[in-house]
Amino acid sequence: MSTLRQKVAIALVLAFAGTMAHAEQMPAVKDIVIVHGALVDGSGWRAVHDILSKDGFHVTIVQEPLTSLAEDIEAAKRAIDQQTGAVVLVGHSYGGSVITDAGVDPKVRALVYVAALQPDAGEASGQLLSKFAAPNDAMRAAANRATPDKYLFLPSAKFRENFAADVPAPDAQFMADSQQQPAEKAFGAPVSAAAWRTKPRYAILTTQDHMVSPQLQRWMYQRSRAKVTEVNASHAVYISQPAVVAQVIETAANQTN
Length: 257
Known about the structure:
alpha/beta; Rossmann fold; 12 helices
């Protein structure tokens, strides 16, 4: 082989090796879709959004109507449809029920449950919540204070201690004052499919949770054999510890082929 040919061959090998090394460094999934829980909207996910975006991910936060489980699932499906590539689907609290059903979409590569409900096919959110009552039983208290047209809410004075005990008081008060009230019927509707049965699943278990019992979380995540990260946090872990939540999401994205 001539010297020129040798140089060309070496250059091609080096270029190919560089391309392969760059590909190995790229996350397996670039699109993240986040589904918020009941009583709140997607704005609380700003810190997690900013971390993921800085790290090169494209983040979409679903704003559910919280009027029925079916309509919330449709909202999540619309967001998934708009993604250009494979998706890691994230759900918080009641949003876990939404992603369990919406996650059967072929675009969804992995599921991340953040202090979230994780029903099986045919199970309803309320059914799971009644299995292990959380400390102070905040969701039952919300149900007892439903509006005349059956929408749930937490009294403003009780919001921080139940939902966001580790969030600064002014921020927790704003969350209380801007509650997005979910329809009671959304908690009575069963999911039709359980995406976690066939797809990789990750979970953040919040040990100081007064909304979704840590005992219930442990039971659900053991049942699904999810990869669990335990965090000493309230139900609002995505606000109080966004770096931890973002890290679990990125792990799900990078470990999904």
